[in-house]
Amino acid sequence: MKILVMVKRVTDPNVTVRVNADNSAVDLNNVKMAINPFCEIAIEEAVRLKEAGIASEVIALSIGASQSQEQLRTALAVGADRAILIEADSTLEPIAVAKLASKVIEEEQPGLVILGKQSIDTDNSQTGQMLASIMGWSQGTFASKVDIEGDKLNITREVDTGLQSLSLKLPAVVTCDLRLNEPRFASLPNIMKAKRKPLEIKAAEEYGIDLTPRINMLKVEEPSARQSGEILSSVSELVEKLKTEKGVI
Amino acid sequence: MSILILAEHDNISLKEITLTAVTAASQIGGDIDLLVAGENCHAVAEMAAKVSGVNRVRVADHACYKGLLAENITALIKSLSNDYSHIMAPATTGGKNILPRVAAALDVSHFSEIINVESADTFKRTIYAGNAIATVQSDDPIKVITVRGTAFELSETNGSATIEMLTEVHDLGLSSFVSENVAVSERPELTSAGIVISGGRGMQNGENFSMLEKVADKLGAAVGASRAAVDAGFVPNDMQVGQTGKIVAPDLYIAVGISGAIQHLAGMKDSKVIVAINKDPDAPIHQVADYGLVADLFDAVPELEQSL
Which residues of chain B have a CB within 8 Å of the CB of A163? Predict the structure, then answer.
């Protein structure tokens, strides 16, 4: 069984972004970029399934700017066998990304697609669910445990109330939550080896899909800042303030 | 305009967060229907019928909807979609699981976790861990929207909607519910609690969270955690507050041993009063706190408990 893993290039999670001067977007000039942390978990899971003899091949797919090749090389360095980049304007909406991915699925015929549960830039949490919908496949979102048994996938999901276990019919789309695994670091020899692994680049336009954005970003603003507070000297002062000044306890 | 809201429930009672989605829907305007899909969920339907502003409660009661399976619920919503201009749900793990699938099934875009209704087609939502707020608009014929619970008030519950039973069953056979491991707690739910006390990596281990629980029990508070504490294995993920966990906005938020990474702030900075207990005076959490206590939490937390 082939596994397709989707990888997104995003701002480094440790960077605090700023809104640009004309309030039209977030200023990404000279901002450090990285692989979306949840995508790292997705790659790790796919590689583990290959190491366990369940997957025959791991294909990493990224849809976005040309520089996403860097993130695909990272995926190759931790164990993906080959990579595909569909070059496109990086502001593609999840519905467009999901449609493009569905075309890759038609070509590659994977038995499982693994993605992160959300990207930390747009904070949408949409692409995996949309892809499953377009393919008519089952979906297992926010996964913290995945087991494959024949043509079934047993999944434990992180839900608001605790954990939910589902049995899904394969092929399926899985999106990863934090505790699914701990991603490995790429070793230097593997980073060198990854440079020689195949990375195919295609243009989004080749697929004949309408990629026009449906959502217009009218304005982007900074959130209102909190008033800076005060440092107190004792617990008793804190309790007093919470009781009398704020009346919250 | 007419709006369908997917109700959040556990087959026994309607979850309060559904009422915030009803408030958001009433700001859009038009007739509001609630969809209650589940197994043996009649009690939920009765509760849903009392929500003010709701016109009709549509009930799909069948084993195939147990656990709110995304595949079956999407097919159900799609079958009803012709009647609606907006399809909404609270931004819970249930809503976030299902509504993007619904949007793709209808070939429309999806607004995730809105925090404000500007008009029937324009909304605000946060991006980049809450470091920016985007105003977004779409011309799609059906708007598919999840609603951040903390951004809207609860609607009243003195209504009397009609209840309609939906008989057509949408069982795609793609997935099945196996079991649910519900975290049982006597304390209030994290996302609706008036007071939340959360611990971070500074707690050192899971056992030490009992100190926070003692304070929580005196205050009637919920206990949360930062991602660092979840990653370290101190506590389960359903306690996580932050960009990738739960969003809370209580009257009082007490952050204990939490440094204040942007990912954590994204989940709690709309709290009315924030208290930080952290021995590092330079910890970023102190910059968003109304009251900071630069102290060893192992001294301060027991003292706090004693003084309540």
Answer: 180-181, 238
Q: Which of residues 44-83 of A touch B (CB under 8 A)?
A: none
Distance CA A173, CA A183 (A): 19
Are A139 and A173 in contact, with CB atoms under 8 Å apart?
yes
Cβ atoms within 10 Å of B122's Cβ, excluding its own: 18
- Residue B189 carries which side chain, given as an amino acid letter? E
Q: How far is B121 from chain A (nearest CA, A)?
A: 10
Q: How many CB atoms lie within 10 A of CB A188?
A: 8
Task: Judge: B293–A235 Cβ closer than 8 Å, yes or no.
Answer: yes
Would you call A220 and B294 a contact, using CB atoms and an 8 Å cutoff? Answer: no
- Tokens 């434990």, residue located: A156
CB proximity B136 to A under 8 Å: yes
User: Which tokens hold the place of B301?
Assistant: 């937390």
Give me the pLDDT at residue A90, please.
Answer: 64
Mind telling me how many Å the CA of B305 is from chain A's nearest CA? 10
DSSP for chain B, written as a single string: -EEEEEPPB-SSSB-THHHHHHHHHHHH-SEEEEEEEESS-HHHHHHHHTSTT--EEEEEE-GGGTT--HHHHHHHHHHHGGG-SEEEEESSHHHHHHHHHHHHHTT--EEEEEEEEEETTEEEEEETTTTEEEEEEE--SSEEEEE-GGGSPPPP-----EEEE-------SSEEEEEEEE---SSPPTTT-SEEEEE-GGG-SSTTHHHHHHHHHHHT-EEEE-HHHHHTTSS-GGGBBSTTSB----SEEEEES----HHHHHHHTT-SEEEEE-S-TT-THHHH-SEEE-S-HHHHHHHHHHT-
- Smallest Cα distance from B111 to chain A, Å: 8
| Residues B165, B49: Cα–Cα separation, whole Å | 13
The torsion angles phi and psi of B144, rounded to 5 degrees, stand at -110, 120
Residue A70 C-alpha, separation from nearest chain B C-alpha, in angstroms: 21
Q: Look up tokens 């924030």; give the residue.
A: B274
Cβ within 8 Å of A, B 185-214: 191, 195
pLDDT in tens, B101-147: 999 999 999 999 999 999 999 999 999 999 999 999 999 999 999 99
| End-to-end CA, chain B | 50
Q: Give Cβ neighbours of residue B202 (< 8 Å, ≥ 6 apart).
A: B256, B257, B258, B259, B278, B279, B297
User: How far is the C-alpha of B249 from the C-alpha of B264, rounded, in Å?
Assistant: 12
Q: What was the ipTM of the complex prediction?
A: 0.96
Per-residue pLDDT tens digits for B40-59: 999 999 999 999 999 999 99
**What's the half-sphere exposure (Cβ side, CA atoms, 13 Å) at A61?**
28
